[in-house]
Amino acid sequence: MKITVMTADERFITLEVDPQELVENVKALLEVETQVSLQQQQLLYHGREIRNTDRLSSIGLVEGDLIMMVSSPSRTGANDLSLNPDGSAVNPRAMQQHIRNDSHLMNLLLQRDPAFAEAVLGDNLDVFQNILRQQHQQKQQLERQKQEEIALLNADPFDVEAQKRIEEAIRQKSVDENWEAALEHNPEAFARVVMLYVDMEVNGVPLKAFVDSGAQMTIISRSCAERCGLLRLLDRRYVGTAHGVGQSEIVGRIHVAPIKIGTQFYPCTFAVLDSPNLEFIFGLDMLRKHQCQIDLKDNVLRVGGGEVSVPFLQEKDIPVEFLGEEKFANQGGSASAELSTATKKVGSSSAPASTSGPSQVDRTQGSAHEAKIAKLVELGFDRASVIQALNLFNGNEEQAAGFLFGG
């Protein structure tokens, strides 16, 4: 007899079967036609699921009847997705594949737990199992903390130590809720931030200038000043120490030298530091003097009230040594740093002077993937997800794009 099967995608398949045929054999025929495995098929007749061991005649199926077939990916054996007492998976390969097939879950893992997402996409089942065990231990620890909180709430209200622990528990809960809210509404806050650099020329020598409105003075290193041919103008009467997060020796001052921004030349004054880790900081003194505007919307530095605009450099264009925060740990630092100088006046005794000075903000480590990141961001994905996807696929732009589109 002939029967008709309607699939989940509304296709109609006609089969020639024997009335005494087992339902399981009908599923085997449908597996060939639809590429849906037998284990994932669910057949419905008059809204009731029919079992593999039923015969077609025993369920009342007659010539020309219609059967519904729905695909059930979740019909994987329950044991395949269960966990051992230590939190590891009974069938790690099946669980790994199950998580991979859930694109929404994978996108959440990319944002909230990239290490676990990498383990899901990788081939090392030992790493996958270890992370599951760690998560299980963390869950047990949270449960213990909850029990302790309940015990605290039931404690003597006049116990000072108990009340302090309750206060700390409430504070920590607020911190955790704030962190979760940031992950949901402001995930880019957890991504790397690239500092503001522009191309400049100092006395005809091209270099990458760090634009820092928190530095009260423009700074050049001794080695950079030598490379630019400016040491001959060094006034050694202006010596001292720059204090901030760390400190650096000030070897003098260059009172005026030409810098080129875009197509225009401007006079600039520099404090010269004996530091191998920084090169050139374009500080607030020159930003004010030359009426500069830091335009983050258009990502440009405007100079001279807008007569010149130069773009801020992308991460891939910034030298790697400028991006490592460890290299700047000993540099003069915060916006409240002080620059102490001892000024020797010709024909008189030395007189100390003090003024506010340079700023050095911590740099975050970068990578050479900015072009790929920008390209994927232009496709409509947020920067944090793009960075995580590229990291998971070792910088492979095509695989990262395929994964993001799959979400």
Automatic annotation (TrEMBL):
Domain Ubiquitin-like: 1-70
Organism of this sequence: Picea sitchensis
Region (Disordered): 341-367
Domain of life: Eukaryota
One term of GO molecular function: polyubiquitin modification-dependent protein binding
Protein name: DNA damage-inducible protein 1
Transmembrane region(s): none
Location of the protein in the cell: Cytoplasm
